[in-house]
Amino acid sequence: MQNYISKYMEIIAKNGIRNTKQKEYILLELISSSTHLTAEQIHQRVKERKIGLATIYRNLKLFESLGIVKEIPSGGTSYYELKLFARKPLHIHFKCLKCNCMTDMDDSEITMEYVRLNQKVEKKLGAEVMDADITLLGICSACKAKFK
């Protein structure tokens, strides 16, 4: 995990921006989370370190401008995921409408369908797809089991 932090902090420094503990703590939360986080969720995890919500929003916007994180808007809420050094650069998101968790669809067959869709769009438009935001909405398995 420290290796990832070092790479991110290097990107920040190369852009003439001062590295701070606040930036490091926010990045650590994004790296260690198994789901995508909102600014408010990050704040809940780091508030004991005296990091305010405005600082989190400011740093998330900075990280986005540097290409470190990607903002995923969904239903009036923004979720954030690390963009650089991602293990799965092509993926689809699933958001639970009950608990609001957002996770990556991690399935090779689904990923191949996603790649084929990108190729079809590129061929049809004569364009190059650089990125996509695909979020499926539904009820996760945990919530589904609770509400049966």
Automatic annotation (TrEMBL):
GO terms for biological process: negative regulation of DNA-templated transcription; regulation of secondary metabolite biosynthetic process. SUPFAM superfamilies: Winged helix' DNA-binding domain. CDD domains: Fur_like. One of its GO terms (molecular function) is transcription cis-regulatory region binding. Keywords: DNA-binding, Metal-binding, Repressor, Transcription, Transcription regulation, Zinc. Binds 1 zinc ion per subunit. Its cofactor is Zn(2+). Zn(2+) binds at residues 96, 99, 140, 143. This is Fe2+ or Zn2+ uptake regulation protein.
